[in-house]
């Protein structure tokens, strides 16, 4: 299981990759492993939509279950991985790369302080 040191994490198993004021969000390697084979991502939000921290942005349908994905920070959605359903397996195969889900222009970067670093997330999942 990969837990990159340069990312932030939520207790709900989303990751946040920060580049300036843009946060790229997806689910962690641990989460994709728990969900199993992912077959579809249903986006409840679109580019340009404002989202609050902990608001549902999309749901992931796997063979075994459906799981909601929450926004770890507040802001405006500036990118949706619209091609993800052409290859939903990318979330399983490369969650931190090709399997990203959405990008947010952060309204308040201080919200990142409430997220877990890689060490705290590793402890959370018992890795």
Q: Class in CATH?
A: Mainly Beta
The helix/strand series, from N terminus to C terminus, equals: EEEHEEEEEHEH
Oligomerization status of the protein chains: single chain
CATH fold label = OB fold (Dihydrolipoamide Acetyltransferase, E2P)
Overall number of domains? 1
Instruction: Provide the CATH architecture.
Output: Beta Barrel
Ends distance: 8 Å
Biggest sheet statistics? 6 strands, antiparallel
> Which spans of ≥5 residues are poorly predicted at pLDDT below 50?
none
> Largest beta sheet: what is the strand line-up?
1-2-3-9-8-5
Gross geometry: globular
Polypeptide structure, described:
By secondary structure, this protein is an alpha+beta fold. It has one domain: OB fold (Dihydrolipoamide Acetyltransferase, E2P), CATH 2.40.50.100. The chain contains 3 helices and 9 strands. It has helices at residues 29-35, 90-93, 118-125, and strands spanning 8-9, 14-19, 22-27, 38-43, 50-51, 56-62, 66-70, 75-80, 102-106. It has a 6-stranded antiparallel beta sheet with strand order 1-2-3-9-8-5. The longest helix is centred in the C-terminal third of the chain and has 8 residues, at 118-125. The termini are close together. The mean pLDDT is 95.
